[in-house]
Amino acid sequence: MASTSDIRNGLCIKYNHDIYKIIEFLHVKPGKGPAFVRTKLKSLTTGKVLDNTFSAGHKIEDVRVETHTYQYLYAEGDQFHFMNNETFEQITLNKSILDAPDLLKEGTNVMVQINTETDLPLSVDMPASIILEVTYAEPGVKGNTATNATKQATVETGATVNVPLFINEGDKIKIDTASGSYMERVKE
After folding, report:
1. Closest alpha carbon to 158 in 93, 92, 96, 104
2. Residue 126 binned pLDDT confidence (cut-offs 50, 70, 90)
3. Nearest-CA neighbor of 71 among 51, 58, 87, 60?
4. C-alpha count within 13 angstroms, C-beta hemisphere, residue 55
5. What is the mean pLDDT of residues 104-126?
6. Would you say 155 and 134 are in contact if contact means Cβ atoms under 8 Å apart?
7. Which of 130, 135, 127, 137 minimizes the C-alpha distance to 175?
8. How far is the C-alpha of 43 from the C-alpha of 20, rounded, in Å?
9. Most confident by average pLDDT, 41-50, 55-64, 114-123
10. 117: Cβ–Cβ under 8 A, 6 or more apart, which residues?
11. Are the CB atoms for 44 and 19 separated by under 8 Å?
12. What is the Cβ-side half-sphere exposure of residue 62, based on CA atoms within 13 angstroms?
């Protein structure tokens, strides 16, 4: 058993007969009344996100997990295939368990959290950022830069990302996997 002081991003807990992963949390200590913790929980079975508030000192049941590095191999419809980098054992995960499946490039290493009680995969943690090549981008219009103007670009995985006007086809860009947004152009 853990308490609200042990809450951190990525912690897996049992709550309402389901297993949830804490995405965000905020300790709140109001001037009047007891302290509490506001959390965003993501269900690892359905993928739904819900907001919940725990009072300070509330006991929560955490789930023991092991983290292993897996390499993304390929996708077949909604099924994504991964290989353990140490044992070369392959697993197949559903698209709903992944946070940003459209940004996954073949050969990318991800961290898979596995429930130690049932040996079932709980969640997949992508790298913080990923570098992808732009396969299609409209040409930028000169003089249309009074504000932070952006345009749609398609990357090699098929995802569309809003990028600045100076990005062209063939450029490599760094994308934040948490938000799916453009970070910077990568020079080689």
Report:
1. 104
2. confident
3. 87
4. 3
5. 86
6. yes
7. 130
8. 4
9. 55-64
10. 63, 64
11. yes
12. 16
Strand pairing class (181-186; 150-155): unpaired
Are 52 and 15 within 8 A, CB to CB?
A: yes
C-alpha to C-alpha distance for 140 and 142, rounded to whole angstroms? 6
> Which amino acid is residue 172, in one-letter code?
K
H-state helical runs in the chain? none
DSSP bridge pairs for 109: 71
Whether residue 13 contacts residue 63, with contact meaning beta carbons closer than 8 Å, is answered with yes
What does the pLDDT read at residue 144? 59
Distance CA 181, CA 148 (A): 14
Tokens of 135: 């396969």
Average pLDDT (76-105) is: 88
Radius of gyration of the chain (CA): 20
- Mean per-residue pLDDT of the chain: 87
pTM, two decimal places: 0.73
d(CA 116, CA 177): 27
Q: Please determine, for residue 148, whether its predicted confidence score (pLDDT) is greater than 80.
A: no
**What's the pLDDT band for 39 if we cut at 50, 70, 90?**
very high
